[in-house]
Amino acid sequence: MVANVLVGLVALIHLYIVYLEMVLWDTPRGHKAFKLTPEFASASKVLAANQGLYNGFLAAGLIWGLYLGAAGFQIKVFFLLCVAIAGLYGAATVGRKILYIQTVPAAVALVAVWLGT
Known about the structure:
The protein contains six helices and no strands. The protein is mainly α and 117 residues long.
């Protein structure tokens, strides 16, 4: 039960990231969230939407794993690993904040799923 709540939380985080990247990127809220200048946000809007779509696939995979219940164990593990690895890469190349927003929740959920809590 705890594991599924944590997996759901990671999925919700990624759905919010999708919204930020695909809808709010070129708005004051998006500028603040990603520390963007209006000029850069405008120039990179299409790239951000593409990135948002990938985050949507991560969320969809986690939701799929939840939908499958106990049979979704491997799906949840796979997508949580994808989220954690993407977060590690983002933290190394963009900023440490991504480590705490993306990797840590995924790692905690992964441990909970693995332990069957």
